[in-house]
Specification:
single chain; 257 residues; alpha/beta; six-stranded mixed β-sheet; five-stranded antiparallel β-sheet
Length: 257
């Protein structure tokens, strides 16, 4: 079953068109990686699906609920109640952690379950404790973000997203703010979630990781999907010249274009 369906999505900022005719779907339990050079529209795509940006056209359906569609050439969004229901189906892990600096690790994780899901504080704490154990952070409940390494902060961010029991989890370049050693910590966590069949969409610049963890890979450039397919086909035997150029340059420099 498709948890996410995006059809003909478009987004522009003034005269700058950043997404054009984007269509793809994500099945339950599937891991989809989105790769491409900087400025290709990857993060904007995630922001549109997560309601952080408003699309200008197309259609987005999440868990069978219509989030937005186009009528008479204009984007029409669902009522606020529906948008809220959709928002609760989606988890998002940001590039730069976005933890509340004045709250402890435990407080950061239970904030949304208590105030959004109306979960009891004890139930929220029990869930948080389980997630912290899963993230290898038992004993850090009372620590503040400033007392944690970047890798630990990102693992808290993942625990916070999972605490809302999302149907689909989005990662926006979750390792870009980390050094190589800490990057490995986060990639290991995401691999474990993939083994548990967590539905995920991952914007990443870690090519080998994308190849290893993904069921499906989307390559974007210039605001469009240039190519998509199974990892081995896209990374190992792409027939698209633009994809080949990107991967060749990436392998030779170790950096995005």
């Amino acid at each position: 079953m498709a948890i996410l369906e995006v059809k003909n999505l478009s987004k522009h900022f003034g005269d700058l068109e950043v997404l054009r005719d984007i269509s793809f779907s994500v099945e339950e339990g599937q891991v989809v990686s989105v790769i491409g050079p900087s400025g290709s529209g990857k993060s904007t795509l995630l922001r549109c699906v997560n309601q952080l940006e408003r699309a200008n056209g197309g259609e987005i359906d999440v868990c069978g609920m219509n989030m937005m569609r186009t009528e008479n050439g204009k984007a029409v969004y669902a009522p606020k109640k529906t948008l809220r229901q959709i928002r609760l189906k989606i988890g998002l892990v940001f590039q730069n952690f976005n933890l509340f600096p004045h709250m402890s690790v435990m407080e950061n994780i239970i904030e949304a379950p208590v105030h959004v899901l109306k979960m009891s504080k004890q139930d929220a704490r029990d869930t948080a404790a389980e997630l912290l154990e899963k993230m290898g952070l038992t004993g850090k409940e009372k620590a503040y973000p400033c007392e944690l390494s970047g890798g630990q902060q990102q693992r808290v961010s993942i625990a916070r997203a999972l605490a809302l029991h999302p149907d689909i989890l989005f990662f926006d370049e979750p390792t870009s703010a980390l050094d190589p050693e800490l990057t490995g910590e986060i990639l290991k966590v995401i691999k474990e979630l993939a083994k548990e069949k967590m539905t995920m969409v991952i914007v990443t610049h870690e090519m080998e990781f994308a190849r290893e963890v993904s069921d499906h890979v989307i390559f974007m450039d210039g605001g469009v999907i240039v190519e998509e397919g199974e990892p081995e086909a896209l990374f190992g035997d792409t027939q698209n010249e633009r994809t080949r150029q990107f991967l060749k340059r990436y392998r030779s420099t170790g950096e995005e274009e």
